[in-house]
Amino acid sequence: MSARVEGYGRLIDRSKRVSFSFNGKRLRGYAGDTLASALLGAGQVMLGRSFKYHRPRGLVASGAEEPNALVGLGEGGRFEPDQRATTTELFDGLAAISQNHWPSLAFDVGEVNNYLARFLPAGFYYKTFMAPRGAWAKIFEPFVRQSAGLGRVPMEPDADAYEYLYAHYDVVVVGGGVAGLQAARAAAATGVSVLVMEDAAHWGGRAPVDGGEIDGMAPGDWVKAALDALEAADNVTLRLRMQGTGVYDHGYHLGYERVADHSPGDGRPRHRLWRIRAGRIVTATGALERPLAFSGNDVPGVMLASAMRDYLVNWGVAAGRRIVVVTNNDDAYRTALAMKAAGRVVAAVLDAREVVTSPLAQAARDAGIAVMEGRAIAEVRGRARVKSVLVTTQAGAGKAGEEIRCDAVAMSGGWSPVVHLWSHCGGKLTWDEAAAMFRPDPDRAPTGADGAPFVLTAGAASGALALDACLADAHAAGKAAGKGAGGKASRKAGPKAVCEAEAPIAPVWIMPEGAGPEKRMKMWLDFQNDVKVSDVQLAAREGYESVEHTKRYTTLGMATDQGKLSNINGLAVLSQALQQEIPATGTTTFRPPYTPISMGAIAGEARGELFQPLRRTPLHDWHDAHGADWEPVGHWRRPYTYLRAGESREQAVQREVVNTRENVGMLDASTLGKIVVKGPDAGRFLDMMYTNMMSTLPVGKCRYGLMCSENGFLIDDGVVARLDDDTWLCHTTTGGADRIHAHMEEWLQTEWWDWKVYTANLTEQYAQIGVVGPKARQVLEALGGMDVSKEALPFMHWAEGELGGLPVRVFRISFSGELSYEIAVPASRGQALWDALMEAGKPHGVMPYGTEALHVLRAEKGFIMIGDETDGTVIPQDLGLTWAISKKKDDYIGKRAQARPHMADPERWKLVGLETTDGSVIPDGAYIVAEGVNANGQRNMQGRVTSSYHSPTLKRGIAMGLVLHGPDRMGEEVTIPRIDGSEIKARIVETCFYDKEGAKQDV
Amino acid sequence: MRRYSAFAIAREALRYHQGWERAWASPAPKKRYDAIVVGAGGHGLATAFYLGRNHGITNVAVIEKGWLGGGNTGRNTTIIRSNYLQDPSAAIYEKARSLYETMSQDLNMNVMFSPRGVIMLAQTEHEKRGYLRTAHANAAQGVDTEFIGPEKVKQLVPIINIDGPRYPVLGGLWQARAGTARHDAVAWGYARACSAMGMDIIQNCAVTGIETEGGKVKAVNTSKGRIETGKLALVVAGHSSELAEMAGFRLPIESVSLQALVSEPVKPCMDVVVMANTVHGYMSQSDKGEMVIGGGTDGFNNYTQRGSFHHIEETVRALVETFPMISRLKMLRQWGGIVDMTGDRSPILSKTPVGGIYVNCGWGTGGFKAIPGSGWAMAELVAKDAPGPLAAAFGLERFREGRFIDESVAAGVAH
């Protein structure tokens, strides 16, 4: 049954039919429809079920405040739950399903909650489901979870892409109604750059629906003219389908552009999130109409008067054939007049005000509409659709009088300015008693760094509801914003607007005034969450007096519309219950986003491959082609090992270790941090950074250094080479490169800003290759070039030269205990060097080795690894590294901290080696227990295992650990429990298991 | 206190719920109390509750600048777990977790503690070794945890992307008895129970000054007048430094904004809580159906309870990567809370330089889960003027001595 009205529908194109489906039923609408208008136009009144009681629900609103008409939209990889029909543009092939019911929309088992509603008041779940203990989680909660939630979950991978956009504008205007357009014109006239965004797919906002006259034109025509002027200006950018989503500190503004929601799969990103820095933000976001709280105000067919007017004027859809209007203000008369003019029966206007003599009311009377003063709705009859209303007096207790048959009710409880963006960053509100609304208080605006307000409001968003006042306010706001953003003063006058004078609103929060408890249990405030007047009153009765308590206790305003529709009604009811003025109650906090925005848009392009893009060494592809079993290390991937056909990971690691010990191995060490520190004060600086003395290191030599935090804890280690008189090259751990560079800069910039030191992180500029093993020298010699003999390049020295025709810097350092060279070349030559070394190494049995072999090799030597032996609580002294702490220096970072009592405590656990008595491998992370339990009943500990490996060289399990009095307990046996409760015995030994004299590395 | 039960609801339903009494009274302050707790958040109310329950001290006022439970108690992501690494942390958080198990019955208010299980994902070899260590430590501490492999993770969380591409899931630390609770109800339940014991909960009462005499506390000045006391517990999370300054000492605390967000509600799709520390984000699904998401803290100190959008981006990116299906869900609401961070990211439960003044603060980003254990330990400290075993390690002196309790070893961000 079509509800379309000929001659209406300024936004639809009747020549373009659009086909779509709802719950599998094929329906047709027009280009320009929203899903809501198309459904209503096709006669679909009931669209969903409420959250708690599963009551039948239809459209209440026509915009972002709609709480009921939420649908599952799209299919497969384009399915999206909880999509508002009122802000969804219709497109060909759109598929929507209703939500929160089983088995069907018309028959929902969950509706049993509705009949139990009396037993399910606000917060009932806090008072029950407590016995027996454990029953909540096992029995009640699963049931609650299943019946809560709204839409079903998208399960397929998202078929769409999203993107970011960064922009700077002097002035951002949010809202493309007449106020926004006028504010933009006024701001643009000052010469500044202006962005105007409109959430909907069309310009003009409410004015073309509401009527009046601007500069002698109908509002619709004025909008066209204003747009023409703005489009012609080269300092103005206009954007439709873009919502002003959030305002953050320093003029940071989010714009949420729904690029392709209405044309899915057209190749464009679905959403684009604009991150804008704005000099000034003008919110021309209009106002939202409030419902009235009467019994049965949630029955499908009851809707906001302004929404009913929108559906008629914008989309040519009549919400009913015979309607009743109920109001406390003049605006709803416009709906009565429009519906009457469209040939519908307006059975009555029930006006809660005692006497109504305004021009609009007179016009209604003149049109033959019955205006009933001082009246209210006692009850709406109907379940899935309005059947009739019972009339009563507003001043009474709700004794039902006349029954008026109707199929729709238009309600208006007055208007609330949209103050969200104003409030996000701290803008305050003031209660306007006469207009019965919270509006922005211009004296308490959010201010920027210059102390001036950076958010301004324009038009209805300021509380200026009448067309003439609205445009005057918008003009002033635009001018002020332009000037505040650095524009020149403009004397251009604003437009002249004419509209009907309106009689004052009467604040009506409950209808009728004296309604009893039974009626109040049927007056909906939050339609989606099923919060009624009785619930708010219950919260007040039980002491949940703060508006935040009431919100949380009743869930008022916590639905997907976030209280846009009726939070003000709710807090007015709360104020009455507490017998205090509305401003004393206040509002809940307005939080971004204005309406929900997709997580996809927030994540933007940073998904999959582009989520934390991988850093690749110059040799990455070679590793990949040669069996690399990758391990994420920081932002890099490093080969854990190189798997050969038929090998397990463990076998591969053993092979690499053995080959490196017996022949020669090659390691891609390019990920190690390489930070150049340069300048006249560089030596002095490094003496502070490291526990060692670096200023005395001779040019050409290397030194192993330790770096501590100011709390004394060991944070990084690495080899430092002095390149020339005032230049040092500091190697860091792979994970530490960025962190340590930042650590250096923090000290330089905040403490020693007058020291002449520069630092540069050159990690990615060099490829670095370790050639490790007894045959390493032979491999280098086979390449030809510089002298790499023991005499020319001794252990812990470095030299520059050429190898195989490549410019290299060679370091004689070892992390394996073997003869070892680390060769650095410019990154672009990394692959060439690697290939040349591989070729030259062939006769010597060269093999690449990965990070795990690196770990085993160092553990066999008792070398510590940052992150294994250290965890942010370990000081160098714990690790037997006092030899690396200079005694000659006055100070280094961490020195003072290391003198604190607990740091010098002999009871601190110290590093030792551990050898299992049966040769097995101790599990990673195991603890060494002591006798008894502590005061908290925890098993006493006397140490923990920091590294544990199977040593292919020793053919047994080896480990290192921190143990109480460890170095004094050599040979003692300790007990290490496994998680399963079984125990391992290990003997305390020295940390070095292999070549204790260090002869092999120094050859 | 009239008891809550299904029968009580049925009885009240017959008279349109007109007979319910106030959950807690709203008295004017008396002239003097034996003990005053400043801060009616979870920790403050729990402190008062256990002062009465465990130590028989009921002449107590809990004074609150705003509305009770309005700070971090009402702003967190409601996760409760005790899989901490260091002994003192594991002890107090495990005590808290076990008290949560019986809280609904203890308070006669359903706080909806739901032991749905928490997984902390291991996404690098290093992280995996860290969690193996925690599992070993927990075994010795009597905390029930287990390291599980990727298949078990996938089985527990079907919506997770186990393969990366950036950080494959290598397993996770699983605490089956961890879970979530209804945060507001925890505050309300304690408030109701305290009120029933005769304690005064005084909201909208800001402390404006602290009077001391001879190095001991004498009274607090408030927006509702001067109130005398011999014992003053400062339990005010984000504003601890300001209160300490009124009493004339300083705290090693920095205050930063921590943000959280929720999606629109959807039908159940994730039963357990997942924390992904390598990518910085954690997520659970509330009983209402919202995906509840938390991330890291702002990099600068502030008191705004807002925070910058950049952190929301980072968190959402991390979670879209971990749970790709959420990219078509929508963010409903974002908010911030002020957390007070200590140098070692562990709390302070301590005597102070002023006699009779005690502080409970520094819970950083992990306070909600600790509430009952914190209240238990704090009440003991206040009642006996000396810390018991649960609080002993958390004294202020540890910063001077270098006796840190550093959990960052095991928990990258999410604490």
Automatic annotation (TrEMBL), chain A:
Residues 619-889 form the GCVT N-terminal domain. Residues 522-604 form the SoxA A3 domain. Gene3D superfamilies: 2Fe-2S iron-sulphur cluster binding domain, sarcosine oxidase, alpha subunit, N-terminal domain (3.10.20.440), FAD/NAD(P)-binding domain (3.50.50.60), Probable tRNA modification gtpase trme, domain 1 (3.30.1360.120). Keywords: Oxidoreductase. Residues 910-995 form the Aminomethyltransferase C-terminal domain. InterPro entries: 2Fe-2S-bd_N, FAD/NAD-bd_sf, FAD/NAD-binding_dom, GcvT/YgfZ/DmdA, GcvT/YgfZ_C, GcvT_C, GCVT_N, Sarcosine_oxidase_asu. Residues 169-422 form the FAD/NAD(P)-binding domain. It comes from the Bacteria. Belongs to the GcvT family. This is Sarcosine oxidase subunit alpha. The lineage of its organism: Bacteria, Pseudomonadati, Pseudomonadota, Alphaproteobacteria, Rhodobacterales.
UniProtKB/TrEMBL annotation, chain B:
Residues 36-79 form the Rhodanese domain. Its EC number is 1.5.3.24. The keyword Oxidoreductase applies. Its cofactor is FAD; FMN. The keyword Cytoplasm applies. Its main location: cytoplasm. Coiled coil: none annotated. Keywords: Cytoplasm, FAD, Flavoprotein, FMN, Nucleotide-binding, Oxidoreductase. Pfam families: DAO. NCBIfam families: soxB. This is Sarcosine oxidase subunit beta. It comes from Sinisalibacter lacisalsi. The lineage of its organism: Bacteria, Pseudomonadati, Pseudomonadota, Alphaproteobacteria, Rhodobacterales.
